[in-house]
């Protein structure tokens, strides 16, 4: 193994780790803290925060490592370094908040999506993390005293640091209380303790027994009509309303849909969440956003209600995250593998429509504008806005290049939606048709140093929550009725009830107040 170069006692290791965590791994936390403090001229916070942070980490590390000794101490420190380094990459590079929902997203990420996040910088951070872990486990000579002495020492240091923190707080409580009450989101950037707390919450939730699966709308009945209904729901991915020219964006990102007079664009639609793992199940749920939680996935959803009333449901999925179990009871579901362009969703459209004549609901789940590999989401013919960012390493690109590449994904979505409407129009002699498009969530493209999506809803910028939505109807009365609401504040909460109304399904679960066609 070579010569041993470093010799430390446990408290020196803890002190140096506390300094490193404060100075190196919490850049985003301090950046936001100083932005707020200087804006509010709260100089007491600005001056004392680094000192309090070091004390806080000394206290927390002694508590976390209280029961460890020898190899378990080494493993604990090594894990903290690895978690801190990898968390700091995502927090500092993308403005990511690593909460429970974000960790659920990570666990549900497939190989293609994960590879899209791999950059030289991430590999550098990963290599550095592994090197530090190896050094701590095998190279650093640590002088351990007997377990009882180590335990008492950690407990005493934790107690002293806690008292010092309390003393500082008492001395400047007015400044601290109001500041952190007004900026609760700061705690979400504390690395590594907020990610560790989030992982603990996720572990606790996964260990809890799942609630019994619940059926809904057992009283549902569909009004039968001679002319059947054909409804297409295009579920968008990572599209934000800000970049839809239908909503006033200066670039012509919707040239085909803009030419149509039969499309109703809803300019003020809010998403249920800021990540697919939350928004997608919520979009198909009877529950509204404020009542949504992961346990609600143990209820039947919209497609279940449609199927139990005799509606034929077809699910086509090109999304790397797939359907989040929404379509697991749908017999006609197809999932495309690998990187494919979204027009593949329309490949068997007419063939499916011609198989039988009945009320039909077709879900087309896009890969849409999923980043950071925006450049892989559209064919070369749609590379209209240039220069582009043709790499997943967004730090190598200017914001103009990132936005141009993203805008090309919206341009391609415009084409896919227009093609779907054209297919519907070919069937309007037999069917009453409708198309719904709504994105699951939005995206940040570098505004205020934030990229991608998935921030907690309470602190997420509007770019991640304000999503595009539009409707097409062959029935002009419905089109006219919806035009009246085109600029109203609407949300994903309306989708469940509006789609029930489109198929004229009567059930106690239906809420007229959330039906966009009333």
TrEMBL record:
Cellular component GO terms, alphabetically?
plasma membrane
* GO molecular function list: phosphotransferase activity, phosphate group as acceptor
Topology within the bilayer:
Multi-pass membrane protein
The keyword Transferase is annotated on this UniProt entry? yes
From the Swiss-Prot or TrEMBL record, state where the protein is found: Cell inner membrane
Where does the Sulfatase N-terminal domain lie?
230-504
Query: Locate the Phosphoethanolamine transferase N-terminal domain: which residues?
Result: 59-204
**Could you confirm whether the keyword Nucleus appears in this record?**
no
Q: Which GO terms describe its biological process?
A: lipopolysaccharide core region biosynthetic process
Alphabetical list of Pfam families matching this protein: EptA_B_N (PF08019), Sulfatase (PF00884)
Instruction: Assign the protein's first listed, main location to one coarse class.
Output: membrane
The domain of life for this entry's organism is: Bacteria
Per the UniProt record, which residue ranges are transmembrane? 12-31, 43-66, 73-91, 122-140, 152-172
Annotated keywords? Cell inner membrane, Cell membrane, Membrane, Transferase, Transmembrane, Transmembrane helix
Q: What is the official name of this protein in its record?
A: Sulfatase
Organism whose genome encodes this protein? Sulfurospirillum deleyianum (strain ATCC 51133 / DSM 6946 / 5175)
